[in-house]
Amino acid sequence: MSDRFLIPVDEHQVEEEIQRSRFITTLCHAPDPAAAQAFIARMRGQYEDATHNCWAYLAGPPGSSAFVGMSDDGEPHGTAGRPMLLVLTHSGIGEIAAVVTRYYGGTKLGKGGLVRAYSGGVQAALATLPTKEKITYTALEVVLPYSFVTQFKLLLTRFEGVIDEEHYELDAQYALRIPSPKIADFEQELDSLTNGAALVSKEEP
């Protein structure tokens, strides 16, 4: 599993008309399959009068296949859900769900046309989707002498550390988070910086 990757910031929607059919593509953050299914249910309710509400989701890191789902919702088999999922899988974005809502306009698109319409809708939405980086952190508690505080905070900045709590008693005490891939290097440099005087306890990511 990747420790950092892009995810959607918020719900995002684009719309286009293809041979008189109206296609509305909505993307949403889906950290797990339950969130994806809740989003899909909400879109179905919002567009309950639509001809189809086809969907796909990838509720994990980019390219993963552990938590995926798709549906053609009445369109010919393989013309909607699978092409949509294929686009999501290769987008470089994780934890994402897509619903493409179609209002039929009276002109049949054929299987190839449907594949292009559904995959193209997702591609168009992804092109303008606001994203942010998701980082997996590991929580640490660090206790160290006051003489190292200034250098310690510089070290934290370099390692993208986040301080959640700090207390100053006999020593300086910190509850903090470090990006998981950087933990080993951070601990090594902290030990070197303080000549082994820092006490570190680690929690699971």
Automatic annotation (TrEMBL):
It comes from Acanthopleuribacter pedis. Belongs to the IMPACT family. One of its GO terms (biological process) is regulation of translational initiation. Residues 143-196 form the UPF0029 domain. GO terms for cellular component: cytoplasm. Residues 20-126 form the Impact N-terminal domain. Signal peptide: none annotated. This is YigZ family protein.
